[in-house]
Design goal:
Layout: E1 2-5, H1 11-19, H2 29-37, H3 41-44, E2 46-52, E3 64-73, E4 76-84, H4 93-107, E5 112-118, H5 122-130, E6 134-143, E7 148-156
């Protein structure tokens, strides 16, 4: 596996991965393009990376197996979404991507990372706890399709 900054050519794969996840937000194709269209993404505060399957051949359906997108203002970072293709879940891909992200935030002088996670997403919540995130609050009815509360998590670096 290899983590790299996302490019516009990754948008279709990112959308496909998200559509395969029943609890994902399902942002539009245009939303992803807007994140990657900016002339200087770092200056905008956006950070979007993909996880490539280095062992995939040229005909592989999923050369990209996960991605994450975050936004920051000064030292505060928000992990807005992270999605792992279903066939690569529970294989350490999410852990790998999240560790790489945390390291990049540290290198950029970040002090805290925040995120929201579906209350029912026990696997993601366990992963976040394992990497040091604390559950600090609840947002009632935060998600739709299906409606659900969100747990607010914070990692202090």
């Amino acid at each position: 596996m290899r983590v790299r900054m996302a490019t516009r050519t990754d948008v279709m794969a990112m959308v496909e991965i998200e559509r395969g996840s029943p609890t994902a937000t399902n942002w539009s194709h245009k939303h992803y393009e807007s994140l990657l269209r900016m002339e200087a993404p770092a200056a905008s505060g956006y950070f979007v990376v993909v996880v490539e399957n280095e062992s995939a051949d040229a005909d592989s359906r999923l050369p990209i197996v996960a991605y994450l997108a975050a936004h920051h203002v000064d030292e505060e970072w928000e992990l807005q979404y992270m999605v792992v293709a279903p066939e690569f879940q529970r294989q350490g891909v999410g852990t790998y991507a999240l560790k790489e992200f945390i390291e990049q935030v540290r290198k950029r002088g970040g002090a805290r990372i925040f995120l929201e996670v579906r209350e029912s997403n026990r696997a993601a919540r366990a992963l976040y706890r394992k990497l040091g995130f604390e559950e600090t609050g609840l947002r009632k009815s935060y998600y739709s399709n299906p409606p659900e509360d969100a747990i607010i998590c914070r990692l202090t670096l």
